[in-house]
Amino acid sequence: MSLSFKFIFSKEIPAMPVEHVIENFRKGFKLTYCEEIKQVESNKIHVMNGFFHNFNSHWNMWTGVGDAWLTVTEKKENRILVEYEINYSYFVIMWSVVFSFTIFSSIVQFTHYGQSSDDMILSGIIILSFLFSFEVLYWRHWSFFRRALSGKYISAGNYNWPQILSDKTDEELRYIASGKSMLNSDVAALAKKELEKRKQH
């Protein structure tokens, strides 16, 4: 059984067309220099990158990440669950090689010349670099997840929003109208109109 290192971001949001969420994330992924995007199921996207990723930007969010999955699951009570899973095993492998080389060099140094303060300084720098790089990796994907959920990458789409919104509860409509959902301002305006229409009846 292969060992893998992953972190997962997830959030439940008011129900909306699953394909709308999938398309939003797909457009976001295309802007991040990933190597391949594949829709494996109607509610799931798989992002794939090779070990020697094409480094075409500083602090590329896919450096050290082989795979990522975006899954949208319909829940009860008009809710959907959005899960974003990132496999950063390549990142761990790369840094393990760096650590191993550093330890080997330190042993050779100690064997021939005795312990040196330079070795301790170098080890400290490498550990700090590892921690900093991991924080950047984690933050980049967390930030992407939040931006995608906010609806940054997509328009209203070709959906019958008046009909969709008419099936929502008042609470869901207020949430959409507030602009806090991943739907854009056009849909938020339609939600406000639906609320106003209900008040008149």
From TrEMBL:
<protein>
    <submittedName>
        <fullName>Uncharacterized protein</fullName>
    </submittedName>
</protein>
<keyword id="KW-1133">Transmembrane helix</keyword>
<keyword id="KW-0472">Membrane</keyword>
<keyword id="KW-0812">Transmembrane</keyword>
<feature type="transmembrane region" description="Helical">
    <location>
        <begin position="120"/>
        <end position="139"/>
    </location>
</feature>
<feature type="transmembrane region" description="Helical">
    <location>
        <begin position="88"/>
        <end position="108"/>
    </location>
</feature>
